Amino acid sequence: MFCLRQHHVFLFSVMAPAIVVPGIVHAQDGEQARTLDAVVVVAERAVTATKTDTPLVKTPQAISVVPSDLFIERGARNMQETLRYSAGVNAEAYGLDTRSDGSTIRGLDPVQYLDGMRKVYNFSPLPRTEVYTLDRVEVLRGPSSVLYGQGASGGILNTVSKRPQFTQAGEVGVQIGNFQRRQVQADITGPLDDSGQLAGRFIAVARDSDMQTDHLPDDRQVLAPSITWRPGDRTEITFLGLYQRDRTASSQQFLPVVSTLHASERGSLDPSTFLGDKGYDRLDARQASGTLLAEHRFNDTVALRSALRYLDADTTFQEIYPDTYSSPLDPFIDAERRVVNRNLYAIKPHIRTLTNDNSLQFNFDTGAFNHTLLAGVDYTDFRQESSSAFCSAFSDPADCVVTPIDIYNPVSSGVVAPAYVEDPDLRNTQLGLYVQDQIRYADRVSLVLGVRRDRARSETEGSEAQTDEATTFRVGVIGEVGKGVSPYLSYSESFLPVAGVDFYGNALVPVRGRQVEGGVKWAPARGMLFTANAYRIIESNRPTNDPEHVLFSTQTGEIRSRGFELEGAYAVADDITITASYSYNKAEVTESNFPNEIGKQLNDTPQRLASLWAAKTFEVGQQASLRVGLGGRHVGSTLSTGTTHSLTTPSYTLADALVALDWSDWSLALNVNNLLDKTYFAPCRAFGDCFSGNSRTVVGTIAYRF
């Protein structure tokens, strides 16, 4: 287990209750690390929902927090896998997919943030988040544009980086797993001077690995230095550096439905089947970023916070994939039904992003009412320069050649790659002003009011620039009625500018969303939290695959997402942990320029999600303990509606397991995900392709803490 603490620290994705047991706790919100007494502490605070340090029982919206200790205990290797047990989240919406960390919340797409600032802006692949650099993942469910501006209807996935600590700690570790996985990693932090003003941290990861898909690497190098300066009790400035380089390729091979889910007597293709070209397919990505986080408290009433990040990234993505789209029900071009045509797609984006968020917080009273007033301004500037290439079996042989392939005996040869062509430059800027007031009465009732004004400008070279302005609102109330029961009701809106153009060169318009949510949070005792909520979301202008031009996006008219979520967590310090969740979501297309999908469940969206995780620690010696964990995840069936037919992908249920031994300063863990090695798809689509799920993964980890 990779943690800098002397014992495990758990925080459960149940409206973010954190069960903390003895050990050194990572400092958050400027607090110095400390050693806790041997008691159970239920963390009741989070920052993503309000941008202030607010107790969860005073936050009238669903938010979940998953700390590094918990998602590593469950064997998460990427950001998607950290969310597998979170209510309302389809963590791996498209199965094993190295192109992005694609997940959905309440059937809708979230926006990915890092340290409170947006990270991902369009569909161009960036290096996927390295979970070893993260302290926690926060999931804010539902629209949230009042504070973030660029927030999707589904919500926000905000990953929080590990920060320097003023307590000396460190670890080095080695991982070995199937698919030839070999990884070394180190995390060292502590004070840098005798005065206690400077602290540093250095994180490094190096991985040499194959992956489930044949012939493809999954290699990575990460360097993440950081430093914190505390010149006084009221000021803290932190710089976070990150350099990451990935060498891989697209794990998804878009295997034909007729040879997988609807396989004939010849049998289903193995999920590891590679239908590309070993000499051409690649996804090489490089990213460098610097983040500056500053906070100054003028006094007990006024505090200033500022966050600034600059990111520079280059990617080369090249893939050859089977052409199932021309004839989804019969893609074969030979009488024996073995050979299919292939397409080639490639893009080389260079992305530069500047993000900045500045806010003032005022704490004051007006009579019986206590106010936490937040006023801020944020700005983003996203720029992309790229070149791309495309080739199919019908392209002019003088320009390129992409040969067919026998999918049952895949050998690729004779490919002549096309030349890259410059794409139109993209630039998206957004300026937002926001104000939020959290009003507390009698220390029992909290009212949250917020308003924001945004101005977003989208520029695509060769097309007329598009400017959009929007005002979004938020209101919510939550109150304790006794015995730890806190019902709440809220309304929120979202506004999300979208980069790029459709097939006809028209700029994509912003996605809009609005939600009504009600629920109850019950914390009867420390180490226990149960929640229930129901919601209704309306989203308009959702980008989806264009059925007529599959490499482009179109925008669906309107989606209505309704459902409810149940969650529960129970923990006894250093002993038993149990979490459970159930979600029902009916995401229905209500307006569309594609008539076949109107009135039907949103494509690729399961209605039901459920999970259960249980772990227990056994003392096996004076300095040793054994922890055993077992979990189950259920993802319901999905529907895909095409121009001529619809397709249902069956539900699936998977099991995960953990065995971990802690002895003195050493830790040895074995994680097995998809314990029974179940073959499943997530999902298959009416386009004619299937997305393979993750097969069984076995990873052993040994770490030394100092």
Automatic annotation (TrEMBL):
Keyword Lipid metabolism: no
Location of the TonB-dependent receptor plug domain: 56-156
Signal peptide: 1-27
The keyword rRNA processing is annotated on this UniProt entry: no
Organism per entry: Luteimonas cucumeris
Protein name per UniProt: Iron complex outermembrane receptor protein
Gene3D superfamilies linked to this entry: TonB-dependent receptor, beta-barrel domain, TonB-dependent receptor, plug domain
GO biological process: siderophore transport
Record membrane topology: Multi-pass membrane protein
Molecular-function annotations in GO: siderophore uptake transmembrane transporter activity; signaling receptor activity
InterPro entries per record: Beta-barrel_TonB, Beta-barrel_TonB_sf, Plug_dom, Plug_dom_sf, TonB-dep_rcpt-like, TonB_sidphr_rcpt
